[in-house]
Design goal:
This protein has about 350 residues and is of the alpha/beta class. The protein contains 7 helices and 23 strands. The chain has a domain of about 190 residues: Leucine-rich repeat, LRR (right-handed beta-alpha superhelix) (Alpha-Beta Horseshoe), CATH 3.80.10. It is elongated and about 70 Å long.
């Protein structure tokens, strides 16, 4: 691979001890293996590398499963704090679904964009090791069906906790049906910002058990998801009428252009949005009949909350009643026009 050979020559003339960021771009002359050439790290050690970007290339694998010294090469990923993968149209495996690579991961920032052949990112077994991950951005991956897939068919007794994840962004993923396909409980104890747009096969975002872990959630923006029916879906075994769902730090909730959205929370528990200052924006959600199947509690004083539906501000206390009345008005208007 001529590009790799040239890269080796260049790096050999630099002070490798001070290289913390490496960007590899335009590697289209890939040999039969189609794998990222990790071997050159043994020829040109980069002991302090923290950020790696691979863009505009034809690799099918980044951290491949078969290498003569996989354990030694795994140290590369253990040093990485930021990984960017962009415009890799043939990419089928990042290697982050392989335990060998992530067992000692310190990855804090992961951005995956325009990887048209990628179908999954992690397995349930490897996701448990991404304890340092703080930012996860995935966009324009046409084949992606799930971010995390169950490692085993009966992978239902575990808890997967993203201990440091603060930002989650899912954008333009037309085949994404679920964030996670298994039955384990996902926890996001420090997640603050969630942005989801144009994920047209997704029917819900969080389960009730996962939503209970979102104690630090500050902002949620969901838009242009054609099949989305609810943001939080309830299951019989965990959604008990006396068990509340609380978002104590939520300041902004935006739901827009969600034609099949029926409610924010499809459960009977009381939904509590407790932050002193909160904004709720709902627009172009024509199927939304109620905000929650159970009661909704907002801050008492109207100056501490702003509720907008299709651009109109409402000051009433009962968010369910506001949404229901708006749905009835739309239905009447549609009947008159038909």
């Amino acid at each position: 691979m001529e590009g790799v050979k040239m890269l080796e020559k260049v790096l050999l003339h630099l002070d490798n001890q001070n290289i913390k960021y490496l960007k590899l771009q335009g590697f289209d002359d890939i040999d039969e293996s189609d794998a990222f050439p990790l071997e050159f790290f043994s020829k040109v050690p980069l002991p302090n590398i923290e950020m790696l970007a691979v863009v505009d290339s034809a690799f099918k694998e980044i951290f491949p499963s078969k290498l003569p010294d996989t354990e030694n090469y795994a140290k590369i990923l253990s040093r990485l704090k930021k990984l960017e993968l962009r415009n890799l149209h043939k990419l089928e495996s990042t290697g982050l679904e392989l335990l060998t690579w992530v067992a000692s991961s310190n990855l804090a920032w992961l951005e995956v964009e325009c990887c048209a052949s990628l179908k999954l990112l992690f397995t349930s077994s490897t996701a448990k090791y991404l304890v340092q991950l703080q930012h996860l951005y995935i966009s324009n991956c046409e084949a992606l069906q799930s971010v995390i897939v169950a490692y085993q068919l009966h992978d239902d007794d575990d808890v997967i906790t993203f201990q440091e994840l603060k930002e989650l962004s899912l954008s333009k993923l037309p085949k994404l049906e679920n964030f996670y396909t298994g039955k384990s409980t996902l926890n996001f104890p420090v997640l603050k910002d969630v942005m989801v747009t144009e994920c047209n096969r997704m029917e819900h975002l969080f389960t009730f058990s996962t939503a209970k872990s979102l104690k630090l959630l500050n902002k949620m923006e969901i838009s242009k998801c054609e099949s989305l029916k609810s943001i939080v879906v309830a299951t019989e075994e965990v959604d008990k009428p006396r068990e509340n769902l609380a978002f104590p730090n939520l300041e902004k909730l935006s739901l827009s252009q969600l034609p099949k959205l029926e409610s924010f929370f499809a459960g009977n528990s009381t939904l509590k949005i407790q932050k002193n200052w909160v904004e709720v924006w709902i627009s172009e959600c024509s199927s939304m009949k109620t905000f929650s199947q159970g009661d909704v509690e907002l801050p008492n004083h109207q100056n501490l909350r702003r509720v907008y539906i299709d651009g109109v501000r409402f000051s009433e206390d009962n968010l369910n009643a506001i949404v229901s009345q708006k749905f009835e008005n739309r239905s009447k208007e549609a009947a008159l026009m038909s």
